[in-house]
C-alpha cells in the first residue's frame, strides 16, 4: 500500500525500537527475507567447519554454506533467506540434536533448528560494560551452549531458548574477555588473556572470585569433544588422564584447535597438525594459504581458508560463487556484468584503505584480478567503470595520499597502464575520485584539489587518440564525489561543509572547453550550506540533490543554468495535517531513478526509501531491521533497467532486490501478475502487476465480465489489494485484467486465480 511517511518520526521510532530491544530480555523470531532478495556476499573467509550427516557446514562472515559431499550440491543460508544479521563471529552445531547457534558482532544470535530460525537479542550484558559486545565463541554440549563474550561467559539453554547463569569476569577495575570456553563434564573452562580459568557448574558459577586459574598466560583456545584441549598462540595442552600435557610440536601462530573423532586438529596459519587424543602426532599438512580453521568431515580433512572458502588436500575448493571479499563501495553494471570498487572516504575526505582493488562478475562467475594479489601498491579504489563500447576495458581510480594515486586501465582484468600517478608536486593534490562515461563515450574522472589553479576542482578527460587524460578545471569548490552526466552536461557533487555545492557544467560537444556555461548551486539557491553528497537526474530533467542536511529538487536544470537566481525545492510531505520536510537534517547518500521515474533514496543510518515520482509517497522502505540489508548505510544504489533488479551496496556487502519496474516505456512489456494463483492461506499481501506502460488504464473483471476494480497506474507497475469497488475482498474465482496505455495504442490482458 502507498503511504505517506514522516521520516524524522520514523527515524526516531526505528532507533527507539533498537534501544528497546537492546535493553529487554527478549527471544523472538522474525522473517526479513523473501524470494525477491538475493545476496552477493563473499563466502571466502571460512571461520568454522562442522558436519551434519553427509553435509559439510561452513560458517563465513555473512552467512553459512552447506556442501553435500554425497552429491556435490552447495547451498547458502544468509540474511536473504533466513538469517537475521551479518558479521558472524562464532558458530557451533550439534549433529545429534540438529541445532546450530550463530553469534554476531552485535552480540545477537540466531538459533538454527529443524523448526526454523529464531533470533535472540537478550544476551546478558555486564553492568557498566561499554565495550565491544560481539560474541567471541560458542560451544554446544548437548542442549547447553557456553557463549564467550568480552566480559565473561553465559550458559544458554537451547531447548528453552533462554540464558541461564552468567559469569561476569570483573576484576574490579576492568573486565576480562573470554576468548573461548567449553564444558567438560560438570566444569567450564575459559581461555582468557589472564590464563585458563575453570569453574564447576554450580550455584557459585556467576561469582568471578570463585573461579580458579588452572594455568597462567595468554590462552586463546578451549575445546572439548571427549577430550579437553586448550592453547596459547604457540602451545597446545590436552587432557592426559587426570593431568594435562603439552603437545611436543612448536607452533608458530595457532588460529584454531578442534577435537573430533579422537583427534586433536591444530590450525597453525598455513599448516594443519593432527594428533591423537593421547598426544601422538599423526600428520601435518599444508593448504598453501592462510587458514582460520580445519576439521574432519566423513574422515576427510578440510581447511577453512581466509581467502578461498573450504579447501581439501587435493587443492579443490568448495564455496558458493561470490566476490573476493564483502568490502564494497560503488557498483557499475553493463550487459549483465558487474564491477565493484572497495574503497571509500572518511568524512568525504580521508581515504579508507581496504586495499582489495575491485571485483568483477563476468556474467557467469566472479573474478578477482590477479593484479591485486600481494600487490605492494596501497589501494583505495573509489570507483570502477567499464568502457560501454568495449567492456573488456576498465578504468578505476585509486584515491590516496601516496604516489600510487591515479587512474588505472585494465584489459580483461589485467593491468595495462596507470595515469596521473605523480601529476602534482604534492601527493595531496590532483586526487581522482569518481568516474563516468557520457552518452558519447567521453570518460570523466572528478579531481580533488587541483594544483596551481584558483578553481579547486574539475575533472580529468580521457583522450583515446593519445591514450591519456587532460586536466580540466571547473569550479572553486572543495572536495568532489562521483559525477553524473546527461545530454552534454556534467553534475559534480561537492561535499565539503565549508565550500561545497552542486556544480553543473554545460559542455555540449566539447567537454575539454573551459569557456562554457558553469554554475555552482549553494546557499543562495536554497541549498543547505554544508555540501552536496549525491545527485540524480530524473526523466523530467529535474535534478534530485542529496545534501548533508536533507533532499532538494532543482526543476529543469537547462533553464536553471540561465536563470539568474534558480531555487531548489524541498519535498514537503503531510503527516496528521502538519507539513514536514522529507529527510530533513539527514545525509542523503545516494539517489537512483528507475525507468518509471520513481526514486530510490539511501539515508545515512536510515536505510533505503522507494519514493513516488514526486517524492510525496513512500512506496517501500528497507532497513537492516526489516530487510536483508547488511547495514542502514547504503553507499550505492544501481538499477538494471532490463531486469528491474535493484542493487544495494554497503561496506559490509551487496544485496539485490527484484523490483517491479523494468524497461518502462509508453507500451506494455511482458506483463505479468504475481503471485498467481493467490491463495489467501499462503499470501495476504497485495497482488503486483508488472511490465505496464508508463501510464496504464486498468479494468479488472470477473469471469462473467462484471467490473470489480479499476485504476490508473503510473510508473510501470500496480498493486491490487484484491478488494472490489465496494472495498470488500473479491470472491474465489478467475479474474481478467484488461489494460490500455495512455492513448490506447497498446493493450494487454492477463488473468489471475483467487482462492480464499
From TrEMBL:
Pfam families: PorZ_N_b_propeller
Residues in PorZ N-terminal beta-propeller domain copies: 58-211
Top-rank taxon, per record: Bacteria
Official protein name in the record: PorZ N-terminal beta-propeller domain-containing protein
Gene source species: Frigoriflavimonas asaccharolytica
Amino acid at each position: 500500500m502507498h503511504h505517506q511517511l514522516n521520516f524524522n518520526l520514523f527515524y526516531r521510532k526505528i532507533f527507539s525500537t533498537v534501544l528497546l530491544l537492546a535493553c529487554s530480555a527478549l527471544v523472538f523470531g522474525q522473517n526479513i527475507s523473501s524470494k525477491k532478495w538475493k545476496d552477493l556476499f563473499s563466502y571466502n573467509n571460512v571461520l568454522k567447519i562442522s558436519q551434519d550427516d553427509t553435509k559439510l557446514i561452513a560458517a563465513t562472515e555473512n552467512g553459512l554454506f552447506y556442501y553435500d559431499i554425497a552429491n556435490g550440491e552447495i547451498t547458502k543460508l544468509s540474511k536473504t533467506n533466513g538469517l537475521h544479521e551479518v558479521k558472524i563471529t562464532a558458530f557451533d552445531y550439534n549433529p545429534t540434536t540438529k541445532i546450530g547457534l550463530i553469534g554476531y558482532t552485535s552480540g545477537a544470535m540466531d538459533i538454527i533448528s529443524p523448526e526454523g530460525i529464531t533470533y535472540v537479542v537478550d544476551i546478558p550484558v555486564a553492568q557498566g560494560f561499554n565495550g565491544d559486545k560481539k560474541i567471541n565463541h560458542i560451544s554446544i554440549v548437548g542442549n547447553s551452549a557456553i557463549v564467550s563474550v568480552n566480559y565473561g561467559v553465559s550458559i544458554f539453554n537451547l531447548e528453552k531458548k533462554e540464558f541461564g547463569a552468567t559469569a561476569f569476569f570483573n576484576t574490579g577495575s576492568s573486565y576480562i574477555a573470554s576468548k573461548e570456553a567449553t564444558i567438560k563434564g560438570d566444569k567450564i573452562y575459559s581461555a582468557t588473556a589472564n590464563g585458563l580459568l575453570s569453574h564447576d557448574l554450580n550455584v557459585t558459577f556467576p561469582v568471578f572470585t570463585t573461579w580458579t586459574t588452572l594455568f597462567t598466560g595468554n590462552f586463546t583456545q578451549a575445546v572439548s569433544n571427549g577430550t579437553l584441549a586448550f592453547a596459547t598462540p604457540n602451545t597446545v595442552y590436552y587432557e592426559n588422564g587426570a593431568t594435562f600435557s603439552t603437545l611436543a610440536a612448536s607452533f608458530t601462530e595457532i588460529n584454531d584447535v578442534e577435537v573430533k573423532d579422537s583427534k586433536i586438529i591444530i590450525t597453525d596459519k598455513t599448516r594443519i597438525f593432527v594428533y591423537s587424543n593421547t598426544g601422538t602426532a599423526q600428520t601435518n599438512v599444508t593448504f598453501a594459504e592462510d587458514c582460520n580453521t580445519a576439521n574432519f568431515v566423513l574422515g576427510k580433512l578440510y581447511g577453512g581458508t581466509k581467502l578461498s572458502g573450504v579447501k581439501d588436500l587435493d587443492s579443490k575448493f568448495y564455496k558458493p560463487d561470490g566476490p573476493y571479499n564483502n568490502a564494497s563501495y560503488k557498483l557499475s553494471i553493463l550487459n549483465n556484468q558487474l564491477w565493484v570498487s572497495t574503497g571509500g572516504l572518511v568524512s568525504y575526505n580521508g581515504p579508507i584503505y581496504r586495499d582489495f582493488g575491485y571485483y568483477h562478475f563476468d556474467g557467469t562467475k566472479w573474478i578477482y584480478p590477479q593484479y591485486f594479489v600481494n600487490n605492494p601498491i596501497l589501494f583505495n579504489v573509489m570507483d570502477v567503470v567499464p568502457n560501454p563500447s568495449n567492456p573488456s576495458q576498465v578504468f578505476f581510480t585509486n584515491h590516496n595520499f601516496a604516489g600510487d594515486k591515479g587512474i588505472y586501465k585494465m584489459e580483461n582484468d589485467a593491468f595495462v597502464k596507470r595515469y596521473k600517478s605523480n601529476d602534482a608536486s604534492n601527493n595531496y593534490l590532483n586526487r581522482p575520485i569518481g568516474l563516468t562515461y557520457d552518452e558519447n563515450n567521453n570518460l570523466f574522472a572528478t579531481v580533488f584539489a587541483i594544483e596551481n589553479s584558483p578553481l579547486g576542482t574539475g575533472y580529468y578527460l580521457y583522450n583515446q587518440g593519445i591514450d591519456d587524460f587532460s586536466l580540466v578545471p571547473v569550479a572553486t569548490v572543495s572536495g568532489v564525489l562521483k559525477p553524473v552526466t546527461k545530454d552534454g552536461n556534467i553534475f559534480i557533487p561537492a561535499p565539503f561543509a565549508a565550500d561545497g555545492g552542486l556544480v553543473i557544467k554545460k559542455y555540449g560537444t566539447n567537454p575539454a572547453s573551459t569557456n562554457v556555461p558553469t554554475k555552482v548551486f549553494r546557499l543562495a539557491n536554497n541549498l543547505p550550506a554544508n555540501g552536496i553528497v549525491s545527485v540524480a537526474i530524473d526523466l523530467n530533467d529535474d535534478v534530485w540533490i542529496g545534501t548533508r542536511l536533507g533532499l532538494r529538487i532543482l526543476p529543469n536544470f537547462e533553464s536553471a543554468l540561465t536563470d539568474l537566481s534558480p531555487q531548489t525545492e524541498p519535498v514537503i510531505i503531510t503527516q496528521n495535517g502538519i507539513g514536514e520536510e522529507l529527510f530533513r537534517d539527514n545525509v542523503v547518500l545516494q539517489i537512483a531513478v528507475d525507468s518509471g521515474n520513481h526514486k530510490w533514496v539511501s539515508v545515512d543510518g536510515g536505510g533505503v526509501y522507494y519514493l513516488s515520482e514526486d517524492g510525496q509517497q513512500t512506496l517501500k522502505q528497507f532497513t537492516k531491521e526489516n530487510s536483508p540489508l547488511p547495514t542502514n548505510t547504503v553507499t550505492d544504489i544501481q538499477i538494471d533497467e532490463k531486469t528491474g533488479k535493484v542493487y544495494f551496496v554497503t561496506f559490509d556487502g551487496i544485496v539485490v532486490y527484484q523490483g517491479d519496474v523494468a524497461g518502462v516505456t509508453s507500451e506494455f512489456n511482458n506483463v505479468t501478475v504475481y503471485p498467481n494463483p493467490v491463495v489467501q492461506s499462503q499470501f495476504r499481501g497485495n497482488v503486483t502487476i508488472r511490465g505496464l506502460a508508463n501510464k496504464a488504464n486498468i479494468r479488472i473483471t470477473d469471469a462473467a465480465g462484471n467490473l470489480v476494480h479499476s485504476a490508473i497506474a503510473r510508473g510501470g507497475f500496480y498493486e491490487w489489494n484484491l478488494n472490489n469497488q465496494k472495498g470488500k475482498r473479491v470472491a474465489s474465482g478467475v479474474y481478467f485484467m484488461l489494460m490500455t496505455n495512455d492513448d490506447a495504442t497498446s493493450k494487454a490482458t492477463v488473468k489471475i486465480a483467487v482462492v480464499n
